[in-house]
Design a protein that fits this description.
Helix content: 40-55%
Number of strands: 12
Strand content: 5-15%
Distance between the termini: 57 Å
Shape: globular
Bound molecules: 5-S-methyl-5-thio-alpha-D-ribofuranose, magnesium ion
Strand order of the largest sheet: 1-2-3-7-6
Radius of gyration: 21 Å
Structural class: alpha+beta
Length: 410
């Protein structure tokens, strides 16, 4: 429900608002504001102080509906609280890897945070084949620290249960339940897909074994309060430079399965991998960049696993730390969940409501279909074969094998 003092701000009102917040700008500062949001859900304003200071901030305001659809899709404003509280926790667990929060206003569902105008949205960089040498290390550490340190592995179970309550996020979870695990697997009205791949999508709708496995992954998403996950960790939720990485937008955060976050980031690297069958027609350039993406997938997991084991040594509760073989079993289950969730996340971006610019920016629909078929083939096998994975190279080998089968290299 929208509270009575909530109102949607325009650019001028946003300037007037920030002037009243102590410590942001001086009284006479000349401020320019522009709404720059291009995401699915919120308003995002950037305010820049004119003159030599060049100081700037971001003001993010949740709308009481999903921006991408309009007022017919009402949406909780509590997501702004979830986002600001998750950012503050993540900033404690891994300082410097998320934007700083300067102010949160519950009434207006608004958060003021660090401006990252020197960084770009990772997805945009990947489409133009940019390389980010520090990214795998940064995101591997982010994942290990946010996931392990928020879980029962590293904190008292009573304290953790209170955090589960703090991060109850039913409306945002429902979006994921529908858009990731349900709608893409039948002829739902919300689906949108390229008519050139309808034959393959119909096969997926009739693939009982696949749908059974997706149902098991959905059940785990609904019921496993394993760690405080970001909940929407795609490459549009990452802003970076060659040296620095910031994870943004944790409004889907809740206590869920760790593999959902790791799978999300790997899935989005793999969607980009598929998209270069359409974007990068020079064979050598394409193969080199695709190798870079698979190396990145492997490095993310390797860094994650190393950091997870280090944290385990330092922080694991005695009841887990003392059990021989437990950590290896835990990480194996996590790898298999990661494969499964990566598969679901790939398929939903091809069949479901919300697509990715990596694929959507391929204007020739027949060429795009080639990429989408590859993404659907990889997605299906990641779900179906997840329990055979023993190490991260099993995932990347699977991708290479499927590409050889699906895309004839000349
Ligand atoms: C209506 S929201 C659609 C999608 O955008 C977000 O980024 C989430 O991925 C969600 O599923
Ligand atoms: Mg987002």
């Amino acid at each position: 429900m929208v509270n009575s003092s909530y109102r949607v701000l325009n650019e001028l009102e946003t300037i007037q608002y920030v002037r009243k917040i102590p410590g942001l700008f001086s009284e006479n500062a000349q401020l320019v504001c522009k709404e720059i949001g291009d995401g699915n859900l919120n308003l995002v304003f950037r305010i820049i102080e004119q003159g030599s200071s060049g100081k700037s901030i971001i003001i993010k305001q949740a709308l009481p509906y999903a921006r991408v659809v309009g007022e017919s899709w009402p949406l909780t404003l509590d997501r702004a609280r979830i986002e600001s509280e998750a950012l503050m926790i993540q900033n404690i667990l891994c300082p410097g890897l998320v934007p700083k929060v300067y102010h949160y206003d519950r009434e207006l569902a608004l958060t003021i945070m660090e401006d990252l105008s020197t960084h770009i949205i990772m997805r945009k960089g990947l489409i133009t084949r940019k390389r980010y040498p520090q990214f795998a290390k940064h995101i591997g550490i982010f994942l290990a620290r946010t996931l392990l340190l928020s879980s029962d592995l590293a904190q008292d179970s009573q304290i953790k249960k209170l955090k589960v309550i703090q991060f109850i996020n039913p409306e945002m979870c429902k979006i994921t339940e529908n858009l990731v695990f349900t709608d893409p697997y039948y002829d739902a009205k919300t689906n949108q897909f390229n008519p050139f791949i309808k034959d393959l999508i119909k096969e997926i709708w009739g693939h009982d074994e696949l749908i059974l496995e997706i149902t098991k992954l959905k059940e785990k998403f609904l019921t496993q309060a394993q760690a405080l996950i970001h909940g929407d960790l795609h490459t549009g939720s990452i802003m970076l430079t060659e040296k620095d990485t910031k994870v943004i937008d944790p409004e889907f955060s809740f206590y869920g399965p760790m593999g959902f976050d790791i799978g999300a980031i790997l899935a989005n690297l793999l969607l980009n991998y598929c998209s270069h069958e359409g974007h990068t027609l020079d064979r050598d350039d394409r193969l080199q960049y695709q190798d870079y993406l698979l190396d990145t997938v492997e490095e993310i997991w390797t860094v994650f696993e190393e950091e997870f084991k280090t944290l385990w040594q330092e922080k694991a509760m005695e009841c887990y730390a003392s059990k021989q073989g437990y950590i290896d079993d835990y990480l194996l289950r996590l790898l298999q969940d990661t494969c499964g969730y990566a598969g679901c996340k790939m398929m939903r971006r091809v069949i479901g409501l919300a697509h990715v610019p990596d694929l959507e920016s391929i204007e020739d629909h027949k060429l795009r279909a080639k990429c989408e078929r590859l993404a659907l083939a990889i997605g299906q096998q990641l779900v179906l074969k997840r329990e055979t994975a023993r190490k991260i190279s099993d995932l990347t080998s699977l991708v290479r094998t499927i590409k050889r089968q699906e895309v004839e290299e000349d």
